Amino acid sequence: MRVPYFLRHWMDRTTSRRSVGNDWPVALANRQIFILPSGFGMTAAGAALTLLLVALNYQSSPVFLLAFFLGSLLQTAMVITHQHLRGLVINDVTVDPVFAGESPRLRIRLSNQRRRARHGLQCYNGEHSSKCLTLQPGSTEDLALSLPASGRGRQRLERLGLACMEPFGTFRAWSRLHPVDYIVYPSPAANAPPPPGFAGHNGPGTTHAQPDDFAGLASYRPGDRPGQIAWHVYARSGELERKHFASDGTSTRWLDFNATPGTTTENRLSILTSWCIAAEHAQQPWGLRLPGHRIAPGNGPRHLATCLRALALFPGPYGGNG
């Protein structure tokens, strides 16, 4: 059933005031669950009302019985549909970063702490809905929804929520979730030249270092000596990082936006994305320079994600952990 625009707008504005926040985990309460009859439910209710009018007109006991049976069935279905969402625990809502042109995947982790299974659970974003999930008692599973591909940068899911139409599809119960932000990285260039400073390349992106110059932080590797560990970083964040020093005859490797070939900004960002991935595969510390922003040399998945995120958000701002 197609809802008129003014009614849909009013419903969106009203339900967004009771949307579930980002402080996970959270259990859905009564005030966060909304329920309305579906098109099929409206048809069934109309049929029950018609049967009741016929029974009143002709004083027919069998028709009375059929009308009351259908009305009771609809009322029971409404309660069960609502119960499928009531008390459902949302553990986390995530969208993994992807490259431009790829389809992001929304994941909502759900837990059922009740003794009865919950049927027909779906997540939705606007007009896009996931497949139905049956959540068994005491189990925890993910609801997944593939989203349309988009360009690089910070993207936002506005009309996000959980829904259920079981049993019979006569009613639709739903809960709204707060908007979720995610990052889309630039698409790697297909035929990018080798990154400067790697594989014998000694171009403008490479700066020579003096012996024992501090070149940045790198991921901890089992067997590193205590003197190599950046203890001040461990005291602040609780994560082990090792100090990397440039040795004589080596180079501090920088990937520089201004030294990147390319005719447009997007082309340069695509080449830098390819360079970041190639530099990470080399397992040597490397840094990234962008106009107005600099990321110190390092390596590891966390360093790569930080640099790709900066490329996605170019020209800034870069703050936050989106």
Judged by helices, strands and strand pairing, the structural class is alpha+beta
Q: Name the shape in a single word.
A: elongated
* Weakly predicted, low-confidence segments: 200-212
Order of helices and strands: HEEHHEEEEEEEEEEEEEHEEHEEH
Give the helix proportion (percent range). Answer: 25-40%
The largest pleated sheet is described as: 6 strands, antiparallel
How widely separated are the two ends?
37 Å
Keywords:
alpha+beta; 6-stranded antiparallel sheet; 6 helices; 4-stranded antiparallel sheet
Question: Any overview of this molecule?
Answer:
There is one protein chain. This protein is an alpha+beta fold. Helix content is 29%, strand content 30%. It has six helices and 19 strands. The chain has helices at 5-16, 39-58, 61-85, 231-237, 265-281, 301-313, and strands at residues 26-27, 34-37, 89-95, 98-99, 105-111, 118-125, 128-129, 133-135, 140-146, 153-157, 160-164, 171-177, 180-185, 206-208, 213-219, 241-246, 251-256, 286-290, 293-298. Strands 2, 6, 7, 8, 11 and 12 form a six-stranded antiparallel beta sheet that branches. Strands 1-3-5-9 form a four-stranded antiparallel beta sheet, with no helix packed on it. A hairpin with a 6-residue loop joins strand 11 (160-164) and strand 12 (171-177). The longest helix has 25 residues, at 61-85. The radius of gyration is 28 Å and the shape is elongated. The two termini are 37 Å apart. The relative contact order is 0.12.
SSE blueprint:
Layout: H1 5-16, E1 26-27, E2 34-37, H2 39-58, H3 61-85, E3 89-95, E4 98-99, E5 105-111, E6 118-125, E7 128-129, E8 133-135, E9 140-146, E10 153-157, E11 160-164, E12 171-177, E13 180-185, E14 206-208, E15 213-219, H4 231-237, E16 241-246, E17 251-256, H5 265-281, E18 286-290, E19 293-298, H6 301-313
Parallel strand pairs: 4-13, 17-18
Antiparallel strand pairs: 1-3, 2-12, 3-5, 5-9, 6-7, 6-8, 6-11, 10-13, 11-12, 14-17, 15-16, 18-19
Helix pairs in contact: 2-3, 5-6
